[in-house]
Amino acid sequence: MSDLALLDHVTASRQRLTAALAPRVVGQQATIDAVLTAIFAGGHALLVGVPGLAKTLLVKSVAEALGWQFRRIQFTPDLMPADITGTEILREDRATGARELVFAPGPVFGNLILADEINRTPPKTQAALLEAMQEGSVTAGGRTHALPQPFFVLATQNPIEQEGTYPLPEAQLDRFLLCIHLDYPARDEEMAIATLDTRTRATVSPVLSIADFQQQLALVARLPVPEVAVRHAVDLARASRPANGHAWVKTNVAWGAGPRASQALVAAARARAALLGLPAVGIAEIRAVAPLVLAHRVVPSFSAQGQGIDGRAIAAKLLELVSP
Question: Structural domain of residue 234, as residue ranges?
Fold first, then answer.
């Protein structure tokens, strides 16, 4: 199959996935597009929103539409690394009496992992998940166990009720390709939500096989990115750094985005372009994903925090300062 024909399949997959989610998830189209962008870019995403915005329902529904194995991990202060990665247990053969250590996989062994409220568990457990995300494997008892493919983690955070939480360090936030913020639904969408029967749930059937997804993922990775688009991605990332940024950046940014941000901008823009059926990445795609890529990779200065300037505000300002 030619790349152009395969590109049409990627666009059709987006349409089928969106249609499959529509009966269950009301509105949130921008969030759905962002989640699909992360998945087709082969990266992980952080989902930030107040309770009741259907974060868990959305992730589970996406897994069902993809036909993937879904695992939900509810992060709590007493959760240990072995509770998510798995551990070795002693098993006895009843016939022979022989004993051996056998690895019992944890809930991280799935295709789509929902790390619910990841900031409510201690750093040791957070690090275990992030290591699995980075390496694609789990090590126990000196043996390495590969995670199933595809493997995608969508972690959630509640922006309120921060007492007793363990905020992810900047270095760990950088491991997430995108940070997706959910807003309250529009009035007409909330009217539709209010009339839903919560006792029943619309069925979501798989619309894309894993084999087809892997083929489409490979296409996204080789989608052409002109030098002008790469240059714009690098300019955005470099503009976020106080050492070589605008005067506004020097005042309001303590730490800017690193080189991984430039890579993430290109990867996310590739996925967005493919999902829209575009044969190459343009500057418009780089700018469209920039708020999702940069907001969690920049650290506001102390004075900026006092003025209510957060990562999203900084990302928006960077798009103003760096012209296409």
Answer: 224-324
Quick: pLDDT tens for 96-144. Answer: 777 777 788 889 999 999 999 888 888 888 888 888 888 888 887 778 8
Q: How many CB atoms lie within 10 A of CB 158?
A: 16
Which residue shows structure tokens 């418009």? 284
Contacting residues for 193 by C-beta, under 8 A, at least 6 apart:
26, 27, 185
Distance in angstroms (rounded) separating the CA atoms of residues 242 and 261:
15
Please give the full DSSP string across 82-137, using - where no structure is assigned: HHHHEEEEEEE-TTT--EEEEEEE-TT-SSEEEEETGGGS-HHHHHHHHHHHHHSE
| Secondary structure element (H or E) that encloses residue 300, with its range | strand 299-300
204 in the same domain as 250: no
Residue appearing with tokens 């329902």: 57
Hey, what are 155's tokens?
Answer: 């972690």
Query: Of 192, 222, 252, which residue sits at a domain end?
Result: 222
Q: How many domains does the chain have?
A: 2
pTM: 0.89
pLDDT of 202-223, one tens digit each? 778 888 889 899 999 999 999 9
We report the CATH number of the domain holding residue 67 as: 3.40.50.300
